[in-house]
Amino acid sequence: xxxxxxxxxxxxxxxxxxxxxxxxxxxxxxxxxxxxxxxxxxxxxxxxxxxxxxxxxxxxxxxxxxxxxxxxxxxxxxxxxxxxxxxxxxxxxxxxxxxxxxxxxxxxxxxxxxxxxxxxxxxxxxxxxxxxxxxxxxxxxxxxxxx
Length: 147
What we know:
five-stranded parallel sheet, three-stranded antiparallel sheet
């Protein structure tokens, strides 16, 4: 699955992207809000991770524009702004989750997996097509024998 990570702190962005790629995800990285807004308007992603303090267009504005276009893409806000008012504002704008910095990579990975699980196939972990069954957890394709 392809996700978009928008973070202007380059060492943090690289660390997060490397960790997420290690879980089998494809990660596109951008470092400012205008580029993120353009990418979200023209590319297909399974999830967006947005920092709030971005140059040129902040993460709240990127999220607001995304939702105004009717896009229901899951969004995780990842930011140093962890005050309740900021979390409430982000969630009210349409964020699906909010994680304050500093954070543990294991928690970020778990939140990403949870958001993706809710959206992929309506939360189902297996997809069947005829006599084929694909398991998202094991990434195995099985041939079902008809009885």
